[in-house]
Write a structure and sequence with these properties.
Elements (H helix, E strand, L loop, with lengths): L1 H44 L4 H6 L3 H15 L6 H8 L3 H12 L3 H10 L9 E8 L4 E2 L5 E8 L4 E2 L4 E3 L8 E2 L4 E2 L4 E3 L3 E2 L4 E2 L4 E2 L7 E4 L4 E5 L2 E6 L2
Parallel strand pairs: 1-3, 2-4, 3-5, 3-6, 4-7, 5-8, 6-9, 7-10, 8-11, 10-12
Antiparallel strand pairs: 12-13, 13-14
């Protein structure tokens, strides 16, 4: 009799565990479905922003931006437009997107001012530049001013960066593959060579040769062509 009672008790515990496991799985699947549904809804809400893309003459450079940002953020999808919509949830990307649109034809550029009232860009990011190469990546990029003659391809700019003039039309020129870290300042009519890294909080007021890493206030070179050095900027 005791053995029978123990067996029934064990079977009951086993059944309860099975039910509990099924409930956990169902809740987990439900959460996944809800998350997927909400993600789809948020993407759908950003679809009107594609109007600017289709009207713009800057499609090629925008898609190159999308490619770079998707690589850095590890976004994978067969459709570039879906990735574009995913990136348009980021205010710093919206700022870059509006900049690209404004560089193109008048109609799309004019419409950005309407869209900006609905789809907000990063309010403390200011981009005024004659030319920016494809693949500019803006990491966080709040409290950032980008006011340059030109910026090359595949540059990376962090938050609280100031790129600006120190007098009338004395603006920097930035090369390709340049990375400017958080809090750095690049001021005046200076040339930043290709493949340069400007360290966090550095202040650059003189030309920087290509393939260098600079740090400090005022900035000086700590690495040139992969070799550690300590050289003043000329």
């Amino acid at each position: 009799m005791k053995d029978s009672i123990n067996m029934n008790s064990q079977n009951s515990v086993t059944r309860n565990r099975e039910v509990t496991t099924e409930e956990v799985q169902m809740k987990s699947q439900t959460a996944i479905y809800i998350k997927s549904f909400l993600k789809s809804v948020l993407l759908a809400l950003r679809v009107p922003l594609l109007i600017l893309f289709f009207l713009s003459t800057e499609k090629q450079v925008i898609l190159l931006d999308v490619k770079r940002w998707s690589q850095i953020n590890e976004l994978n999808h067969n459709s570039k437009l879906v990735i574009l919509l995913s990136l348009l949830k980021l205010k710093e990307f919206i700022s870059l997107y509006y900049y690209r649109i404004r560089q193109g034809n008048f109609l799309a550029a004019a419409l950005t001012y309407i869209f900006k009232t609905i789809y907000k860009e990063e309010q403390t990011l200011f981009i005024q530049c004659n030319s920016i190469g494809s693949g500019l990546f803006l990491q966080h990029a709040f409290s950032t001013i980008i006011y340059a003659n030109s910026i090359g391809e595949n540059c990376w700019i962090n938050q609280q960066v100031t790129i600006g003039h120190n007098g009338k039309n004395n603006k920097p020129t930035i090369g390709k593959n340049v990375r400017i870290a958080a809090g750095a300042k690049v001021l005046g009519r200076v040339n930043i060579g290709d493949n340069v890294t400007v360290g966090a909080n550095a202040v650059v007021v003189k030309d920087v040769p290509e393939n260098c890493v600079v740090v400090g206030v005022p900035a000086y070179i700590i690495k040139r062509n992969g070799v550690k050095v300590k050289e003043q900027l000329q």
